[in-house]
Amino acid sequence: MSTGDLDALVRVTAPNYVGKSRPEIAFGTTDSPVGTLVLAVTGRGVVSCSYEDEHTVFERITRGVGTFIGPDPRRLDPVRRELDAYFAGRLRTFPSPVDLQLATPFARTVLQMMTAVQYGTATTYGEIATRIGRPQALRAVGNALVANPVCLIVPCHRVVEGPGALGGYAGGTAAKDHLLRLEGAL
C-alpha cells in the first residue's frame, strides 16, 4: 500500500486523524522474504504483524483498538529493523513489546506460552495444549495460533503437527518452512 493509498484509507475510516499529528496507532507495511507484513503499533506495543491485507487489518484495529490510526515511521521503523535483523539471522528474540488486545483471552494464554519456545526449536500443538492445562484442546490451540495477530514476533510458526508434518500457518506452509529453516529448527 502506498503512502497515498494509506492516507486515503485513513481519511475515510479514521476522520479524527490529522496528517501532521502523531496517531494513537502507527500503521504501515513492510516487505519480507515471506511476503508483505502489515504492522501496527500502539502505546503498549506491536498489535499487528500480519500476513492479511491492509484493509482487513485496518478494519480489525479500528473495531478492536481505536480509530486514530496513521503512518508514524518513528514507531514503525524500529519494528521493521528488528524484522530485517531477524531475517538476516542477527536477531533471535524481538525486543519490541507486544500488545495482544486483538487476541481472545484463550488465544492470549496460548500466545504467551509461545514466548517460551526458543529460536531454533519447535514444539507441537499437543505440547502447547498440555502446557496450558488443556491437553484435549488441540484444535482450539491451532485456531489460536492461526489467528495470532502478531506473527513472527510471537513465534507461532514454531508449532508443528509432529515429525515431518508442519501443520498450518497464517502465512502459508512455504512461509512456515522458510522460517523454521532460517532458525535451524528443520
From TrEMBL:
Claim: DNA damage is one of the keywords in the record: yes
A single GO molecular function term of this UniProt record: methylated-DNA-[protein]-cysteine S-methyltransferase activity
Catalytic reactions of this protein: a 4-O-methyl-thymidine in DNA + L-cysteinyl-[protein] = a thymidine in DNA + S-methyl-L-cysteinyl-[protein]; a 6-O-methyl-2'-deoxyguanosine in DNA + L-cysteinyl-[protein] = S-methyl-L-cysteinyl-[protein] + a 2'-deoxyguanosine in DNA
Annotated ranges, domain Methylguanine DNA methyltransferase ribonuclease-like: 27-100
Keywords associated with the record: DNA damage, DNA repair, Methyltransferase, Transferase
Residue span(s) of domain Methylated-DNA-[protein]-cysteine S-methyltransferase DNA binding: 105-185
CDD domains: ATase
InterPro entries the UniProt entry points to: MethylDNA_cys_MeTrfase_AS, MethylDNA_cys_MeTrfase_DNA-bd, MethylDNA_cys_MeTrfase_DNAb, MethylG_MeTrfase_N, MGMT_N_sf, WH-like_DNA-bd_sf
Superkingdom of source: Bacteria
Pfam families registered for this protein in UniProt: DNA_binding_1, Methyltransf_1N
Gene3D superfamilies: Methylated DNA-protein cysteine methyltransferase domain (3.30.160.70), Winged helix-like DNA-binding domain superfamily/Winged helix DNA-binding domain (1.10.10.10)
GO-annotated biological processes: DNA repair; methylation
Enzyme Commission code(s) on record: 2.1.1.63
Top-level enzyme category: transferase
Family: Belongs to the MGMT family.
Protein name: methylated-DNA--[protein]-cysteine S-methyltransferase
Organism name: Sinosporangium siamense
Organismal lineage: Bacteria, Bacillati, Actinomycetota, Actinomycetes, Streptosporangiales
Gene transcribed to yield this protein: ogt
